[in-house]
Specification:
The chain has 175 residues and is mainly alpha-helical. It has one domain. Helices cover 78% and strands 0% of the residues. It is built from 8 helices and no strands. The protein is globular, with a radius of gyration of 19 Å.
């Protein structure tokens, strides 16, 4: 019963993270900062990776490696977004790390789809068959292209908090 609940919660968080991630990706591609969506995306994607470690297993699996890599990439994205305020090279660092985090979520979703959906499992039961490889390669290339476009198009930098406090009406009009 607990494993069923964990699975449902993990899948729901994962799907929410993917959905929020595509909203954030749309924002990056259209040069809009969706601050609320970004927080939801980063939070649910961290939760997805963390809850993935709660499943009972007896050995280190590829999913653990993806989870660890995802958490590392998310740490970079969160630092670039919230501690470095997207200033300078941190803007590109954020864009790249956020897209890589979204890609990892989609990658795992595809793996799970081929494992759990009977029609897909029949096409690639061991996930080493051409349909699985073609799907993963196509998605990877799509994310690389979207990532390049997002790095080029996303130009909005957040202003650091100290900038807001250092500008007063008297200093704004008198140099």
């Amino acid at each position: 019963m607990i494993l069923t609940i964990l699975t449902l919660v993990h899948v729901a968080i994962s799907l929410a993270g993917i959905l929020f991630g595509f909203v954030v990706l749309y924002g990056l591609l259209t040069d809009r900062r969706f601050d609320g969506w970004t927080a939801f995306f980063l939070g649910t994607t961290v939760a997805t990776s963390v809850t993935g470690f709660f499943f009972p297993v007896h050995r280190f699996m590829p999913s653990h490696a993806v989870g660890i890599l995802s958490l590392l990439v998310l740490a970079i994205a969160i630092y670039a977004r919230y501690a470095r305020h997207l200033i300078g090279a941190w803007r590109k660092t954020y864009v790249i790390s956020a897209i890589v985090a979204l890609y990892f979520n989609v990658f795992v979703a595809i793996v799970q789809a081929f494992a759990k959906v009977p029609a897909l499992n029949n096409l690639a039961p061991t996930q080493s068959e051409p349909p699985f490889k073609f799907t993963q390669l196509t998605v990877l290339l799509l994310f690389v292209a979207l990532g390049i476009a997002a790095v080029i198009r996303f130009r909005k930098e957040a202003m650091p908090a100290e900038t807001f406090t250092s500008v007063t009406p008297s200093t704004a009009t008198n140099p």
